[in-house]
């Protein structure tokens, strides 16, 4: 009968380090990635402090963040979406979605730009 040998302390430490290092990697692989999308156009809302950004994205994507960087003459819109947390084929057609973004000051005559591409965004 063979005797069971006790593992060395170094091997146990190495195994623990590998297990601990695998946790963040697995978490990042399982977490849906967030991607910024370009703004195709915008609409004015009844409230002068709100702008409605029109973005083209997959119907199952979820809004992660919508922000506006403002200065006296320009508003730069940033819209970030994330895929659903479950299965997604990536093959479906995109749809245009409306995203409301609150501004610090009224839109007035300021230029609206896309945060992803840096290009002007037309009013629809």
Task: Label this structure with key terms.
1 helix, elongated, three-stranded antiparallel beta sheet, 124 residues, four-stranded mixed beta sheet, 18% helix, alpha+beta
In short:
The chain is an alpha+beta fold. The protein has one helix at 9-30, and strands at 35-37, 39-44, 50-57, 62-70, 74-82, 95-102, 111-114.
Plain-language structure description:
The protein is α+β, with helices and mostly antiparallel strands and 124 residues long. 18% of the residues lie in helices and 38% in strands. The chain has 1 helix and 7 strands, in the order αβββββββ. The strands form 2 sheets. Strands 1, 4, 5 and 7 form a 4-stranded mixed beta sheet that branches. Strands 2-3-6 form a 3-stranded antiparallel beta sheet, with no helix packed on it. The longest helix has 22 residues, at 9-30. It is elongated, with a radius of gyration of 24 Å. The chain starts with 8 loop residues before the first helix and ends in a 10-residue tail after the last strand. 10% of the residues are buried. The model has no long low-confidence stretch (mean pLDDT 85).
